[in-house]
Design a protein that fits this description.
Blueprint lengths: L8 E4 L5 H5 L8 E4 L2 E4 L8 E5 L2 E5 L3 H8 L5 H5 L6 H14 L11 H10 L5 H12 L6 H7 L7 H4 L1 H11 L5 H9 L6 H10 L11 H10 L10 H4 L14 H9 L3 H16 L19
Antiparallel strand pairs: 1-5, 2-3, 3-4, 4-5
Helix pairs in contact: 5-9, 5-11, 7-9, 10-11, 12-15
Length: about 300
């Protein structure tokens, strides 16, 4: 059990933006923003709070290890960039991305795995900020009891994501005991309606490792626009059930496999950046103020 810090404590920081970090993070639904403070609104250490003040993160009711996980301070993309063997033109682009987005970290919560699964499962084919967060606010009071979800969920909404949640959550509780992350990935992929994107997002934001890379439309657009990878396909569930990304016969042409092979532990972070960048700049045609426009292929692709 991690110790609770009762008095206000603080950690010195460099290059961290909490708003930027939480925007693409599935952990964000577990927190509430109250003024300058982020407060744990649900789950592990409910009521704990933290904020950035000057060159420090100040926090209360939570340990240093937990605050580093939630804020993303456990992960610095600059550390992982140094170990990559990239072609010069690709390295220049990735260095540009890291320089631009180093303040965006990966927020994880290994102590809230079940809730991360619910949030990633609900995110299929819908907008996280518009729908998933809204559903979660009404769902969180019943999510602890898997047996009543099918009965109670109708009052929350009629979307297929909600209708399918009860069965998926029962299977998740039964299958989520693996300690080995790649074996756990295969186990969770056996759940009906759960595909590689959901599982990889769950593994990334529950703290199983930054190698896990949920290949969504934002990531595919991002790597194509910036010319980072030449891929032909996205993960195939039937293959993912048999192989890891390291021994899959499609790893050199699959977006996830190729990203992991090329960018290693930077891969999950690049995908996280892609979600923010595509939603905030590309989807809104804000090319004139985009900090990556010098390396973007744009209309040339």
């Amino acid at each position: 059990m991690l110790p609770i810090v009762n008095a206000m404590d603080r950690i010195e920081i460099q290059e961290l933006d909490l708003d930027l970090t939480f925007y693409p993070a599935f952990t964000s639904a577990l927190f509430a923003k109250r003024g300058m403070w982020y407060v744990k609104d649900y789950g592990h250490r409910k009521g704990a709070k933290f904020r950035i003040k000057g060159d420090f993160v100040e926090f209360e009711g939570v340990s240093e290890a937990e605050i580093k996980a939630w804020t993303g301070l456990w992960y610095d993309p600059l550390d992982y960039l140094a170990h990559l063997n990239l072609k010069e033109n690709i390295r220049d682009k990735v260095e540009n991305i890291v320089s631009t987005y180093r303040k965006l970290r990966i927020s994880i919560s290994p102590w809230d795995e079940k809730y991360i699964f619910v949030l990633t499962f609900l995110s299929r084919n819908t907008d996280y900020h518009t729908n998933v967060v809204k559903w979660w606010r009404r769902l969180k009071d019943i999510v602890e009891n898997e047996k009543i979800i099918n009965r109670e969920i109708k009052r929350i909404g009629r979307s297929y994501q909600l209708k399918q949640l009860g069965r998926a959550l029962l299977d998740y509780v039964r299958l989520s005991k693996r300690l080995d992350s790649w074996s756990l990935r295969k186990d969770l992929l056996s759940i009906k309606y759960v595909g590689p994107k959901v599982v990889d997002a769950y593994l990334l934001f529950s703290g199983k490792g930054p190698i896990f890379t949920p290949s969504d439309v934002h990531f595919s657009r991002f790597v194509r626009r910036l010319g980072l990878l030449e891929f032909k396909t996205k993960p195939n569930k039937s293959l993912c059930l048999k192989f890891t990304c390291y021994n899959c016969p499609m790893r050199s042409s699959c977006l996830t496999g190729l990203s992991i092979e090329t960018f290693k532990e930077l891969s999950g972070w690049l995908q996280t950046v892609s979600y923010y960048h595509d939603k905030v700049f590309c989807a809104r045609s804000k090319c004139n103020i985009c900090s990556l426009k010098s390396i973007c292929l744009g209309d040339r692709i």
